[in-house]
Every structure is written in structure tokens, then in C-alpha cells.
């Protein structure tokens, strides 16, 4: 895809804005674009310069409707990105489920989505903000958020000039949005982050060309594969141009302590997953393998007078169900609605800016519970659906991100006791046990 960012220079900055968004990843660019579309002056600043590598390359289909609001559906359809039509699971014994196709539950175009190359996708999102009137700037460091009492009133920025000198400037705003990802400028400053001790994960990942890809269902699917010892799992995300993103995820200590280089760790785990090793046969590595710490965390307080957190600054669940980018964009969409309301009422209070947060926390918690189910060892998807066929639609809703409704949640009344029963029936390290998900075709 070609890009032509209309980027502002420091000299063109206004002294004040209705809204300043720190961080131009998916959540920040979404927030900035939608607030600007409502007619407000918005400044979007990003510390890094695009393109940049980032995890989070598989989308959930229900993000379609946020893309529609952003006005970028046509760009995505013309992008050439690999179309994601479903998911597939491979258990520790190498038993492959049938692909779980999203269109089974809802045969419309919004039931399918894309596997995205993040350098291109993030650039497109940044460009979209600029095209909608946002003052968008890269290579700008936020030194601090300015407060008057308990109210955020602006930011102090640092710019690097062409001659290598640095310049600082204070810029005022009615609303400051923290979309700085795991850097989480505001939540770190205010001590708001709460890490989930049960989901301290690390990932080692990279891209490979020429790895196996299956397109028999009109697109590709995200594949989740367990290693034979069940101490880690792989994501396998076919992208455009014969590239596949492959990453391995496990507990932080298991993955990183005394294991060697990222490459050594990665290929040690490949040897424990014949299903991945077979798919990678003949493939060539196209970039450096890097480590990302995927700690699961929330923030105890996510809005205040004049400020709000979105995306990974708000929280992060886990990479297993590809919910990260979906919830980043969705948080940006919902936060923007409250920011617009607050600016229209000239009341950027915590009450107005944070109205979206209780519902968002409740809905994302359903996916969080599904993540815990995945790691429990008792979530045998096919067996569960066969035993509780009336939950098939709700399980599909969870996998596509359709959680912002009143239907989702009932599944756990049956899933929680089912998982306990499965854990008791199946010794976790029994290599001769019946493979998980052996009957996933029943989902169809």
C-alpha cells in the first residue's frame, strides 16, 4: 500500500487543542480520527517513526464496524492483505481440529477479516488520522503530562530538529488521551497498573517466507498449536506475499530464564511442536526473532478529570484469541464517543470521559475468562460444544469479538464446571490421553 502522510512540523503546532492523543498505534489513531471527524482540533504524537514491527497481526472479525466508522473499509479491501476466514487448533499430540469458519454462524462479509502486516497497517491508521484533519506527528517524545491539581491540562513535548538539537514545548488540551501502549505514561505515573499474576507470558516471534499455507476455504486462518509438553503454544498467521508470522508463547520464566538467545529459544520450542516444524519445512526466516513480554494487566482507574486511557495503556489480556488489536480499536471508538460528548458539553470530567469503561471492562472480561479456560488445560472445544450445542453461537461470538451485546456470558455457567470436570478426567501430562478438540468438526 502507498502512503502519503500529511505530517505537521513543530512550527505548525497550535498552542492548545481540544484533544491531545499520545501514541499513534491502533487505539490512538482511532481515537484521534473519530474525535477529529466530529469537528474538534486534535493533536496526535508518536514517539517512534513508522514503519515499525509490532505484535498483533490477526484481527477479530467484529472490528469491521469500527473500520466502517473510520472510513477505511475500502482501503482494507484493496490492500491485498490475507483474508482471515477462521481459526484452527492443534493439540499437544498433533491432532488438528477442522477449521472453525466464522461464516458458519453469520454468512456476511463482516464475519471475515484480515491478517495484517503491522508496519503497513499502523502507517495506514496514522495516515487516516492526518487525512481527517488531525495534526499528526512522529518522532515526538512526551516528557510529561501537565496537571493543574487533579486535572490533566496538556503535555510537555520534546522535538528533535534537523541539526540534532532538541526543543521542548508545552501544549495545552481539554482532554489528554494515553494511547502509549505498554509504556503507559499516565498509568505508570499514577501507579494504576495491576498485573495478572496468572498470565505473565513472553513471546518469541518473527516472520518466515515459504511456510505452508492452507487456502481451501477462500482465505487463511489463524492456527493455535500446542507444544508436546503443553508448556507453550505457537501462533501461526499466514499473511500476504507468502509470509507467515510465527510466534511461541509461554510463561515468562519458562521461556526466558537460562534458555539462550531468542533464536535458540524459538527453535527449541519448534522441536517440541512437530505440527509447526512440518509447516515450516523449507521456509526461510526473513527478519530477526524478537522477544515481547505479553503480561496480562488492567488499570484500577482508567479515566480522570481531563484524561483517559485506551488500548494497551488501559490493559492487555493475552495474544491467544487475537483480541489485542480488536480491543485497542474498540476502546478508541468508545472513548472517542465520550470525549466528543465531554467536549460538546465543555465538561471533560472523569464522570463523562469514563462512562464507557465499566461496560468495556465487563465485556472484555468474557474474553479474559476464555483465555483462562485455554490455559487451564480443561477447555476441550469440540467436546464442550458437542455436550452443550446451544452454546455454539455464543462461543463463535466470543471468537469473532461479538461481545458488546447482552447475549454473551451465559456460556460460562456451563463452561466453568465443564473445565473442572475435564481437568479431573484428563491428567495434564498424560501423552496417551484422548487428544483435545478431536471432535471439533461437530462445531459445523
What does this molecule look like?
This protein is globular. Strands 3, 4, 5, 11, 12, 13, 14, 15 and 16 form a 9-stranded mixed β-sheet that branches. Strands 1, 2, 6, 7, 8, 9, 18 and 19 form an 8-stranded mixed β-sheet that branches. It is an alpha+beta fold and 444 residues long. Helix 1 (26-37) packs parallel to helix 4 (118-131) and helix 1 (26-37) runs parallel beside helix 9 (324-344). The longest helix has 21 residues, at 324-344. It has helices at 26-37, 64-70, 73-77, 118-131, 185-190, 252-256, 262-270, 274-279, 324-344, 350-353, 357-376, 381-387, 392-400, 411-425; strands at 16-22, 42-46, 82-90, 100-101, 113-115, 135-138, 141-148, 151-160, 166-178, 193-195, 201-209, 220-226, 232-238, 243-251, 284-285, 290-293, 297-299, 303-304, 307-309, 315-316. Strand 1 (16-22), helix 1 (26-37) and strand 2 (42-46) form a beta-alpha-beta unit. The two termini are 36 Å apart. It has 14 helices and 20 strands. 49% of the residues are buried. It folds into 3 domains: 16-59 and 119-192 and 300-360, FAD/NAD(P)-binding domain; 83-112 and 196-296, D-Amino Acid Oxidase, Chain A, domain 2, CATH 3.30.9; 378-425, no CATH class. Helices cover 32% and strands 25% of the residues. Keywords: Oxidoreductase. Its EC number is 1.-.-.-. It comes from Lacipirellula limnantheis. Residues 427-444 have a biased composition (Acidic residues). Residues 18-324 form the FAD-binding domain.
Amino acid at each position: 500500500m502507498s502512503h502519503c502522510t500529511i505530517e505537521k512540523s513543530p512550527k505548525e503546532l497550535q498552542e492548545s487543542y481540544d484533544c491531545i492523543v499520545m501514541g499513534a498505534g491502533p487505539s490512538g489513531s482511532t481515537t484521534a480520527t473519530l474525535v477529529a471527524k466530529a469537528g474538534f482540533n486534535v493533536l496526535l504524537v508518536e514517539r517512534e517513526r513508522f514503519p515499525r514491527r509490532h505484535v498483533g497481526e490477526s484481527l477479530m472479525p467484529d472490528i469491521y464496524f469500527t473500520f466502517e466508522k473510520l472510513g477505511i473499509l475500502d482501503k482494507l479491501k484493496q490492500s491485498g492483505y490475507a483474508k482471515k476466514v477462521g481459526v484452527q487448533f492443534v493439540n499437544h499430540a498433533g491432532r488438528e481440529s477442522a477449521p472453525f469458519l466464522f461464516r458458519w454462524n453469520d454468512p456476511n462479509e463482516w464475519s471475515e477479516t484480515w491478517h495484517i502486516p503491522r508496519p503497513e497497517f499502523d502507517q495506514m491508521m496514522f495516515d487516516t488520522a492526518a487525512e481527517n484533519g488531525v495534526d499528526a506527528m512522529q518522532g515526538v517524545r512526551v516528557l510529561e503530562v501537565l496537571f493543574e491539581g487533579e486535572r490533566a491540562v496538556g503535555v510537555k513535548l520534546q522535538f528533535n530538529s534537523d541539526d540534532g538539537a532538541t526543543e521542548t514545548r508545552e501544549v495545552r488540551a481539554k482532554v489528554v488521551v494515553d494511547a502509549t501502549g505498554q509504556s503507559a505514561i499516565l498509568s505508570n505515573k499514577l501507579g494504576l497498573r495491576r498485573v495478572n499474576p496468572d498470565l505473565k507470558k513472553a513471546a518469541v516471534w518473527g516472520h518466515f517466507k515459504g511456510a505452508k499455507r492452507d487456502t481451501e476455504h477462500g482465505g487463511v486462518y489463524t492456527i493455535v498449536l500446542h507444544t508436546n509438553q503443553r508448556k507453550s503454544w505457537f501462533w501461526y498467521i499466514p499473511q500476504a506475499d507468502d509470509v507467515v508470522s510465527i510466534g511461541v508463547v509461554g510463561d515468562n520464566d519458562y521461556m526466558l530464564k537460562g534458555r539462550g538467545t531468542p533464536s535458540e529459544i524459538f527453535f527449541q520450542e519448534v522441536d517440541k511442536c512437530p505440527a509447526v516444524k512440518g509447516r515450516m519445512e523449507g521456509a526461510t526466516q526473513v527478519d530477526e526473532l524478537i522477544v515481547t513480554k505479553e503480561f496480562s494487566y488492567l488499570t484500577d482507574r482508567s479515566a480522570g478529570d481531563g484524561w483517559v486511557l485506551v488500548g494497551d495503556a488501559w490493559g492487555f489480556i493475552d495474544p491467544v484469541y487475537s483480541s489485542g488489536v480488536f480491543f485497542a480499536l474498540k476502546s478508541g471508538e468508545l472513548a472517542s464517543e465520550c470525549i466528543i460528548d465531554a467536549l460538546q458539553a465543555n465538561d471533560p470530567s472523569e464522570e463523562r470521559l469514563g462512562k464507557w469503561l465499566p461496560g468495556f471492562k465487563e465485556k472484555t472480561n468474557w474474553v479474559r475468562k476464555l483465555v483462562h479456560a485455554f490455559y487451564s488445560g480443561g477447555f476441550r472445544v469440540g467436546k464442550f460444544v458437542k455436550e452443550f450445542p446451544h452454546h455454539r453461537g455464543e462461543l463463535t461470538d466470543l471468537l469473532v469479538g461479538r461481545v458488546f451485546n447482552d447475549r454473551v456470558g451465559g456460556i460460562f455457567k456451563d463452561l466453568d464446571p465443564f473445565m473442572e470436570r475435564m481437568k479431573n478426567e484428563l491428567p495434564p501430562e498424560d501423552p496417551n490421553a484422548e487428544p483435545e478438540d478431536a471432535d471439533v468438526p461437530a462445531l459445523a
